Amino acid sequence: MKSTTRFSKNIRGIECLNCKQPLSHQDNFCSNCGQVNDLQPLSVKQFFSEFFSGFFSFDSRFFRTFIPLVFKPGKVSKSYIEGKRMQYANPFRLYLNVTIVFFLLQSLFSVVDKFSLNEFSSENSNNNIIKDSTHINTTPPDSILKDLPLFKSNENTSNDLTQNLLLRIDSIFTSTNLLEQLKTDSIPKTIKDSIYKDFFNSNNKYISEQINNAVENNDWNVIQSMSTLDKDTYEHVESILKENEVDYVIPEEYKSQTEADFNKFNFFKKLNKFSKYDKAHPDGTALGAMEELGVAKTRLNAFNYKLAQNYNKILDDPTFRESYVNSVISKISIALFFLLPIFTLILSLLYYKHKWNYTEHLIFVFNVQTVFFLLLLIFTIFDRFLATNTRMYIFVPLFLFYLFKALHNFYGQHWFKTALKFILLNIFYFILSVTGLIVVMFIVFIL
């Protein structure tokens, strides 16, 4: 935007107001610093004109950039790199402005959704409560025990990992000659250790399968029993050896390995305790939870209590869950800002024989991402007001087609090579995006 009187001869000076560079009445700009040669006092109209011109680049450069950027994939990037830069908007500024507008619009839509009548409908929430309360896992954990004739499952203890393991050990000792082998003096200690190792590994295999089933079924009762599993199993084997007067000494590595394997699950056990405490005490504090549960009063445990609170809120509080999702969405733009240079590095490696350097590859990436958010912005508005789902069926294939054309036009390689690199780039971009999303979700969750 330019004021109609901006370059009138009667307001030009003979000296730059910014750097004191001598000027003539014919100079529109200072040749030293670039400031406009203008003696007219700053008006409100001129102030906002310069603001919006600088922020949105709403001048002829914007339209000379926008139209070919969308309808001629790769042309703007190539021309900009070749030196035709005055006629195009800065790629980074354009990308930044478009993403800001997109995420502001997303935030606006989320605010509007809060006033939706569905927000005040209790039918969905009641159904969820009924579903959650009636979902009870009564299926006993699968294990290799049912495939072993040595073990007879006890229905009263089938859901207890420790009891099942002790029953399994009893069955092995009573139904095999393991006890006799460990008791026989003629068998060397090294052979006995090898025999015990097979027994130990067999138990670990059973435990691993039980753990996997517990995690899949979200069965925290099973996971909780692991805290004393090493002690219980070791003491049980020791008692069997003592009752049968076997003087075999269990190697130290098998005394401590079980504990080392399950220490990592103590974290989940602690979170489960905090989660239950938070549900029972909605107004509870971290200090109160640590005192009642007998947990050490440390900053780490206070942090764990906060994680448990957030976990409960995500499951039970629709408002918090919505706020969490919106927070994740708002920070995706920041994550993308840091991920794009990594993506550009992969792109430059795929085209390492090309004449463009890293910065020039980066300009291409910024322009492509600008189009991505421009199209997404358009289809989001379209879907919002017409209640359609064009983002899924039109936007995705349209942008992929745009990306393919942009790669072909910008780098000028054969269609086959472009197609191959197009597939590789999309695979890597998907992996990078998922990784970035997981990181953002975790960071937002712990904050």
Describe the structure.
By secondary structure, the protein is mainly alpha-helical. It has three domains: 1-41, no CATH class; 92-107 and 318-446, no CATH class; 150-316, no CATH class. It contains 18 helices and no strands. Residues 1-5, 117-159 and 257-263 have low confidence and may be disordered.
Query: Which structural class fits the helix and strand makeup?
Result: mainly alpha
Instruction: Calculate Rg over CA atoms.
Output: 34 Å
Q: Report the biggest beta sheet as strand number plus sense, adding barrel if it closes.
A: none
Unreliable spans:
1-5, 117-159, 257-263
Q: Taking all residues together, what is the mean pLDDT?
A: 75
- The total number of structural domains is 3
Helix content: 55-70%
Q: Give the oligomeric state of the chains in this entry, treating copies of one chain as homo and distinct chains as hetero.
A: single chain
The total count of strands amounts to 0
Alpha plus pi helix count: 18
> What general form does the structure show?
elongated
Which band does the percent of strand residues land in? under 5%
Q: Give the H and E element order.
A: HHHHHHHHHHHHHHHHHH
Distance between the termini: 43 Å
